[in-house]
């Protein structure tokens, strides 16, 4: 049962349109993470009237916790060939997206294009790495196989036993925290209305009229289009009709950052081992991530989590032992049943989803913004995003066909 909402709120606390030339809000977006901000910016730039509601400050949830890897290849697992089309498209869009963002916000998030090394740290790991290389190369990914000596030439601080690596040329990285700030500025500069510290308490989503958004402060907004981009919290928004609920849950990730000497960093490329990834920022921060845990919304940072990360990173880069610990944190990936995002319309007209980005939300920011804006402006999703609609989770029909001939 959906929670019932008070439809008698037609009166004075309905803050829809009266102070907006008698019109309803065109689009309301719930969630000021990378997804909500990217969509809001595209729509505001296209001249739409957009209001974005964020219960805290923008970009402080999963978007803050991320490592900023744009890792279409390093993240690609067997069975994810369709998702790869979306993630590779995102990689193509990134350079122009950055230029546009800089022009729109005056801020260019730090972007590094040295590429990614996925290493085998001993002979046992080489066979598994070779399998991965062959699988990913067959998908057309631009990869190079490096022998141990070649890997250590590129990264001299790697453990001497490093036996081989896949060098993924087009898996770059961006500073995700700067990205969130840039998107926020671009959205506001384009005329978007940003309401931080504004929590949505409940939704009322009739099929044939404006959506109502009940705020925790008692205000009620109305919107023609409502975009749910509340990350791991999207499914739990009170009042969301069952038919529009995405199968999304929180997948906890713990990470930490060490401080390297920026003039003499221990690492230049993004590095993956079988246990951890290490992401070197230009300012000397070395991000080490991340656990993947099914623990609901438990946000604790644990000794076990940090130990596993440090031990995993030390196996690859023994020199980290001397680095000061800067920060540790946790965040919630919005993980979908099939690890792919849910993008676009729902069975409720005017209600749209942008969630389930799991491990790739930063990478997919340009695609998410573009696709949801297209959906709202034209009613059509770009081709590459169509397989990622909510409709893919429709329950199979249980109606069996009657046999043509009944046996006596
Ligand atoms: P979020 O950033 O979580 O934003 C959702 C927002 O909705 C929040 O700000 C929240 O406050 C708001 N909200 C929720 N409920 C309400 C409400 N009722 N009212 C108002 N506001 C509400 N991706 C990559 O591409 N590369 C990486 O290297 C990478 N590394 C990661 C490492 C870790 C440890 C984690 C946890 C994730 C990582 N990700 C990475 C995944 C990426 O961070 C996410 O996919 C992405 O940030 C999801 O963005 P979002 O906007 O959907 O969600
Ligand atoms: N994409 C890295 C992570 O989710 O941990």
From TrEMBL:
DNA damage keyword on record: no
Protein name, per record: Glycine oxidase ThiO
Pfam families: DAO (PF01266)
Organism placement in taxonomy: Bacteria, Pseudomonadati, Pseudomonadota, Alphaproteobacteria, Rhodospirillales
InterPro entries (alphabetical): FAD-dep_OxRdtase (IPR006076), FAD/NAD-bd_sf (IPR036188), Gly_oxidase_ThiO (IPR012727)
Organism the protein comes from: Fodinicurvata halophila
Pathway: Cofactor biosynthesis; thiamine diphosphate biosynthesis
Keyword Membrane: no
Domain named FAD dependent oxidoreductase: residues: 27-374
């Amino acid at each position: 049962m959906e929670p019932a909402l008070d439809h008698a709120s037609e009166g004075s606390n309905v803050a829809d349109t009266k102070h907006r030339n008698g019109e309803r809000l065109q689009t309301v977006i719930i969630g000021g993470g990378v997804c909500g901000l990217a969509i809001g910016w595209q729509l505001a730039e296209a001249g739409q009237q957009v209001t974005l509601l964020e219960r805290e400050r923008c970009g402080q949830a999963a978007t803050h916790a991320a490592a900023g890897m744009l890792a279409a290849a390093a993240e690609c697992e067997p069975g994810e060939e369709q998702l790869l089309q979306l993630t590779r498209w995102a990689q193509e869009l990134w350079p122009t997206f950055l230029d546009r963002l800089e022009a729109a916000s005056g801020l260019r998030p730090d972007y590094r294009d040295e590429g990614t090394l996925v290493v085998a740290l001993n002979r046992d790991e080489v066979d598994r790495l070779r399998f991965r290389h062959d699988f990913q190369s067959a998908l057309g990914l631009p990869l190079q196989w490096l022998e141990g000596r070649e890997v250590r030439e590129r990264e001299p601080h790697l453990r001497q036993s490093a036996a081989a690596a896949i060098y993924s040329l087009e898996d770059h990285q961006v500073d995700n925290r700067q990205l969130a700030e840039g998107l926020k500025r671009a959205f506001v500069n384009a005329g978007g209305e940003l309401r931080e510290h504004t929590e949505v308490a409940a939704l009322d989503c009739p099929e044939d009229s404006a959506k109502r958004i009940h705020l925790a402060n008692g205000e009620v907004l109305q919107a023609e289009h409502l975009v749910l981009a509340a990350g791991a919290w999207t499914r739990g928004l009170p009042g969301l009709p069952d038919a529009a609920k995405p199968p999304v849950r929180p997948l906890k990730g713990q990470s930490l950052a060490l401080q390297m000497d920026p003039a003499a960093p221990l690492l230049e490329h993004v590095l993956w081992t079988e246990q951890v990834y290490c992401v070197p920022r230009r300012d000397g921060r070395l991000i080490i991530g991340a656990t993947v845990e099914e623990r609901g919304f438990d946000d604790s940072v644990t000794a076990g989590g940090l130990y596993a990360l440090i031990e995993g990173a030390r196996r690859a880069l023994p020199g980290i032992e001397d680095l000061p610990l800067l920060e540790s944190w946790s965040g919630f990936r919005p993980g979908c049943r099939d690890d792919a995002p849910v993008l676009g319309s729902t069975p409720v007209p005017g209600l749209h989803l942008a969630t389930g980005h799991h491990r790739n939300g930063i990478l997919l920011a340009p695609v998410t913004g573009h696709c949801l804006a297209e959906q709202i402006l034209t009613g059509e999703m770009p081709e590459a995003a169509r397989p990622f609609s909510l409709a893919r989770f429709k329950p199979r029909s249980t109606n069996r066909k009657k046999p043509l001939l009944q046996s006596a």
